[in-house]
Amino acid sequence: MSSHGDPIPMTARQGGPLRGEALVPGDKSISHRALILGAMAVGETKISGLLEGQDVLDTGRAMEAFGAEVVNHGGGNWSVHGVGVGGFGEPDQVIDCGNSGTGVRLIMGAAATTDIAVTYTGDASLNSRPMGRVTDPLALFGTRAVGRAGGRLPMTLLGAKEPTPVRYVVPVPSAQVKSAVLLAGLNAPGETVVIEQEATRDHTERMLAGFGAEVSVEDTDEGRVITLKGQPELRPQTIAVPRDPSSAAFPVCAALLVEGSDVLVPNIGLNPTRAGLFYTLQEMGADLTFENMREEGGEPVADLRARYSPAMKGINVPPERAASMIDEYPVLSVVAAFAEGQTVMTGVNELRVKESDRIDAMAQGLRAAGVEVDEGEDWWTVTGRGFGQVAGGITAESRLDHRIAMSFLILGLASNAPVSVDDGGPIATSFPIFEDLMADLGAQIERTAR
Ligand SMILES: O=C(O)C1=C[C@@H](OP(=O)(O)O)[C@@H](O)[C@H](O)C1
Ligand SMILES: C=C(OP(=O)(O)O)C(=O)O
Questions:
Q1: Which of 70, 386, 412, 444 lies 20 to 30 A from 138 at CA?
Q2: How far is the CA of 20 from the centre of ligand 1 (A)?
Q3: Which PROSITE patterns does the record match to this protein (predicted)?
Q4: Is the pTM for the entire model greater than 0.95?
């Protein structure tokens, strides 16, 4: 994958307005889940609009290593011939999940309750991220894990021989942890119960129900209680993946910041557990509208229209909204740099354990670009300089983190001097068409000579 290869330095600079339609690729979270549940069903699942980013391709290869047949029919159409719950075979090679936390954590869960030994690894970013948050609950099923110090990859998981169902209160707001436990629960007899205190993205619950599992969700004083009946036969599905709101965030924020812009981003998944950024931008005064609201495949979708919005103001982003926009804080911090007044972001410790420490990565680059940023362990603030007042003129480190690379390039489209990133390679993990899509809108982003 490109983030393993030579760095791809890139530079963004001011140009004319951004205009047109931005057809962003399929949702990354839903794409991973479609491949994994397809591999756990009996028969052929058909997927259209699959994200063909490296993270998802790595998950597809992993499903093949477990014995599923994964076929690319072209044009975003894929099929997965599954081996059934409990049908995973032992891979004869290490499972390399590249840069993807979602990939490795969900796959660990899916394989944890089958009696096979699996070794996982990833790139330097993934191998520095904590896996104990997943292997701790998987141990309750009877799975054993041996990895590097601090629960880091590479790591081998010995699947439970006789899995027992689990009741688990998720200690951090993480859809990856919740999903790993639910996927492990699929091959445990009886009921697995997962309780989350803060609602996180619910694609796993929705898709499990779609594949015919018995799954119920109840809001109680203890939190959101998800109950799954183990050992179902999953029925293959036809899945149309909606476009990714987390990718849409980049052309949307660019349009808000670049003078004269008017961009339509059609058919975006607006699941409420994902849409927090768009409500935050509206509260800041963005000219952002949801057109043609509708339901598709059980998920709310709309066309987003974003226009240049030079009167945005900083706000306090409520901590209870964090999970619904967790991947969007880096690009929000860029918008906040142009707004008037301070933007306060609290309840965001999780940002420190993503592909990079995202608070530190954005704070360092924004400060170098002339923006005041203050931070604590689980909060940060950006003091907006106003439109036309952000200096830029930096080269930011992307730290093997696609969202950091794209966020700094968006900064460069509106700052006074160009902004470069040392490596745009990681962008291909989630948004492989980013450069072409932005160029079609009129953005001045180019690869720079090293
Ligand atoms: O479940 C998922 O698909 C994801 C969950 C989130 O991670 P956490 O579970 O670590 O919050 C998010 O950051 C990631 O991009 C995708
Ligand atoms: C955090 C992210 O992904 P993952 O955890 O799957 O690596 C992301 O895409 O922003």
A1: 70
A2: 30
A3: EPSP_SYNTHASE_1, EPSP_SYNTHASE_2
A4: yes
